[in-house]
Amino acid sequence: MNAKFTYPRLQILVAIGVLLLLAACAQTAAPAATQPTIAPAATVAQPTSAPQATSATVKATKEAAAGSSATVGTCNIDPPTSPTTINMLGWPFSIMNFYADTMKECGQVKNLTVNVQMLDFTAVDDSVRLALSGGGASPYDIVHGSNPEMIEFGSQGWLLPLNDLIEKYKTQYQLDDIMPEAWAGATIDGKIYGIPVDLNTLHLFYREDLFSKYNLKVPTTYDEVIANCKALKADPDLDIPFAMDVSAGWAWEIEFFSFIRSFGGDYLNPDNTPAFNSPAGVAAATKMKEVVDACMGGKAGNYGYEAYEAAMGNGSIAFTQDWANAGSLAIDPKKWATAGSIKFAPGAAPNPGGKLDGSSWFDYYYIPKNTKVDPDLIFRVIMEAAKAENMQQAAKLGFITRKSIPQQMPNSKEALETIQRGSGAYPTNRAITLAQAALGNWLPFVGDGSKTPKEALDGAAAEYIEQAKKQGFIK
Q: Which end of the chain, N or C, is more open, meaning fewer C-beta atoms within 10 Å of its C-beta?
């Protein structure tokens, strides 16, 4: 998701070829020293973790259950000359928990304390907006964010450009090994605002035992998802057959982005006027409503991604549209009682023959512009967490951003196919964040039936136009 600048699509295509090659090489004993030139893939795709929020109770359970299990390396930085505290704020999932643990290792350095706070996604975003918009000293020195936060916060001038630090430490931390499109996703007007540490998308997780019991085919379209839901409703042990996250307005919007692109539409026209209330948008919202009604019904709002992961683990859901980084969690019998029957598939197509349901994301660490701690020291702490030896370990827990390290996730094939054939990433256009906000405000009315898809999208368009004119995106 991103500002007045169009995302470098060619880089994205090249990256997909790189990612697919890495998946094929995942069984090699050691990472390749260099990356060969790859021809661009035929279908556009792009980047991270659209993380999501649930209740504090679910969040705490998730943190306890999905802590990092990889070996954490040492922190090799010079001690600051006086006692210094660095505060990091992020949201929890396995790979980001791992990076948080490596940052804590830097607290063993003399005169350095590293405090790590992990909250749910919404709490992080709200806290960062409050802290950075006021103009005073930031209480946070390292903040986790994904593509949309990068656009919003970077465009507001709240983040520190990292170009000089990246150049200074390029050789020491092998920063040329990080995918170029990952850097591009953190770049606004030539200024780089984040260190990319994770790649993510959404795709299907399903229970093979139930699919076999009811003689179901793995769905490739959402029409087939709906058909499977109708068959699975007969199972007395299921709370709901299928879940995708429509637990909040922003969650509706994330799914809508993939659905509208599958139907050949998009959010904005070249002049920044709204395109999401087009016939393609209406078809997308209509299909989402069909899926919610057939598969989740009145329980849709109960299932944010963390809640439906817990339900998949305890056997009360048969299949989900989940984040790829949950792949390691899903096959761990210590985490999910159903782990032995969990299989993966690419995202289904909302529109048969169209793009798959699965947008592409990066997760970043960035430094607030108004930190009072030495940015050089903060940058070193981030890079100690994300250096190559640690990312080799992190690859067991999520999708990493270094080209030389093979992807090691059990669902690499399905996730990478979804990235290749999916909806891609939000463009780097600051106006997109206004469209996201408006859609997040109006799409839930489709879910509860109080507005038709056309009414809701027209309402979102009116709200977007008002804000876009105020901010100069539409004349």
A: C
